[in-house]
Design a protein that fits this description.
The chain has seven helices and three strands; from the N terminus they run αβαβαβαααα. With 200 residues, the protein is an alpha+beta fold. It has one domain: Vanillyl-alcohol Oxidase, Chain A, domain 3 (3-Layer(aba) Sandwich). The chain has a three-stranded antiparallel beta sheet, with helices on one face. Helix 1 crosses helix 7. The longest helix is centred in the middle third of the chain and has 15 residues. The protein is globular, with a radius of gyration of 18 Å. The protein starts with a helix and ends in a 13-residue tail after the last helix. The C terminus is likely disordered.
């Protein structure tokens, strides 16, 4: 199975009407009862138009932590888990409310956590290179310049030399006759962040 086929299958798990805003942080320590209550309180009220608000925990440790921090690009391998907060909505009119809700909670989580997982991109991170890549940002930028001098592999919060990339214009929704890969690419536009524009 190719990478594109695998991503298409994973993307197909989300219904086309589902949209979300989300952000992630790395957790390196145990939380006491008070901190746990504060974190749980963040999702007690959903933003306007949200059909679901939640926190997901993605375990790390184990084999991930056995590799030295400086042996690979992944700087946060000593974290215990990734904390992901999200708001799901179906009507695009509520995107702003969900974005504001996630942004406020992201700022409240910052004192308890470190960094952010680059594979859960969040457009609201001001210093995304530091948050995603930690102390490896400089070395990774050097590698990128060396092996991708024409900036072929890039996305708005990547290691590109460009400070900012233009906003992506969304393509019209593909019809049922179009290939699943094209449909999955278009559905990704709903996720509040785009890597590349669908080709037309």
């Amino acid at each position: 199975m190719s990478f594109l086929e695998a991503v298409t299958i994973i993307g197909g798990a989300y219904p086309p009407f589902e949209r979300f805003q989300s952000a992630s942080r790395f957790v390196f320590r145990d939380f006491g009862p008070r901190a746990v209550r504060e974190i749980v309180s963040l999702i007690q009220e959903r933003p306007a138009g949200s059909v679901f608000a939640g926190i997901s925990l993605y375990a790390l440790g184990g084999r991930v932590a056995e590799v030295g921090v400086d042996e690979t690009a992944f700087f946060y391998r000593n974290a215990r888990y990734i904390l992901w907060i999200e708001s799901v909505f179906e009507d695009i009119r509520f995107a702003g409310a969900s974005a504001h809700w996630v942004g406020r909670r992201y700022r409240l989580l910052e004192p308890l956590t470190k960094g952010a997982y680059v594979n859960f991109p969040y457009a609201g991170i001001p210093d995304f290179k530091r948050e995603y890549y930690g102390d490896h940002a400089g070395r990774l930028a050097w590698i990128k310049r060396r092996y991708d001098p024409h900036d072929v592999f890039s996305f708005p919060q990547g290691l590109s030399r460009r400070q900012a990339q233009p906003a992506v214009r969304l393509a019209p929704r593909p019809g049922p006759q179009d290939a699943p890969a094209k449909q999955a690419a278009e559905r990704a536009n709903h996720r509040g962040f785009r890597y590349v524009a669908p080709q037309t």
